[in-house]
Amino acid sequence: MRASLVIPTLNEAASIAHVIRLFRTAAAEANATVFQGDPIEWEVLVVDGASADGTAAIAEREGARVIIERRRGYGRAYKTGFAAAWGDVIATADGDATYPVETVPRLVRRLQEEGLDFLTGNRMAYIDRTAMTTEHRIGNRVLNTFVALAYHRYLRDVPGRRLADSQSGFWVFRRGVLERVHLTQDGMAFSEELKIEVALRGLRMLEIPIRYGERWGPPKLSSWRDGLGNLLFLIQKRFDVAREARTGAPTSFASDAGGRTSG
């Protein structure tokens, strides 16, 4: 089996080598143990937003395949990465060392063993208090509450019937998911849109607790601006979902956005 770890970066020179090495070590250990009979062929795909600090060059030296994506946006980077990735399974993480990339290989095994389509991490379970500002925590709580209230009928097949962390960017999923979901967002709202789409399309999703650490380097998020943008998107998306019941499902990522995306 082939798999891809997709990492969007923007000026992550201080941390990207650490992230890639940590993942490579875990992947090698998993191939020698849990995947011994059928080792995974991994690629690390870094989608770099034209960093000015040499992030792309460092990632290449660490053996990653690098795509430069000059169009701005977190979601834009993931759209580009998903379209270019060659894995049967795709995993994601940020380049700032906040997500536990060392757990990815064993999560792939869990995806297989439990017959799941999509795993998403819950940062709130074991969060390091230095990893998220108070404003960011409040914003996440507001967004998670809105998702629980506005989308509860669509989360009925999700274990627990809720998403404890609608904003997490740590995922492991089968490539076939992209043939079912409709992804429109180029910014931070991409994260919540992907999970909502997975639930809407009846895919088998599980949210798992993860450890979320303090980022290496200064934060790039604006808690209030990005939080408000995400909330406005969630409201609009809810109207779009209601309209879909009358007009039919929109085009999937794989046949629409994914097919046209380039790095």
Detailed description of the structure:
The protein has a single domain, classed as Spore Coat Polysaccharide Biosynthesis Protein SpsA, Chain A (Alpha-Beta Complex). Helix content is 39%, strand content 14%. It has a seven-stranded mixed sheet with strand order 3-2-1-4-6-5-7, sandwiched between helices. Strand 1, helix 1 and strand 2 form a beta-alpha-beta unit. Helix 5 packs parallel to helix 7. The chain is globular.
Write the layout of secondary structure elements.
Layout: E1 2-9, H1 16-32, E2 41-48, H2 55-61, E3 65-68, H3 74-84, E4 89-92, H4 104-113, E5 118-122, H5 134-150, E6 171-174, H6 190-200, E7 205-209, H7 223-247, H8 257-260
Parallel strand pairs: 1-2, 1-4, 2-3, 5-7
Antiparallel strand pairs: 4-6, 5-6
Number of spatially distinct domains: 1
CATH architecture: Alpha-Beta Complex
N-to-C SSE string, H for helix and E for strand: EHEHEHEHEHEHEHH
Number of helices: 8
How far apart the termini lie comes to: 24 Å
What structural keywords apply?
263 residues, alpha/beta, Spore Coat Polysaccharide Biosynthesis Protein SpsA, Chain A, 39% helix, globular, disordered C terminus
Compose a concise summary of this entry:
The chain is an alpha/beta fold and 263 residues long. It has 8 helices and 7 strands, in the order βαβαβαβαβαβαβαα. It has a single domain (2-257), classed as Spore Coat Polysaccharide Biosynthesis Protein SpsA, Chain A, CATH 3.90.550.
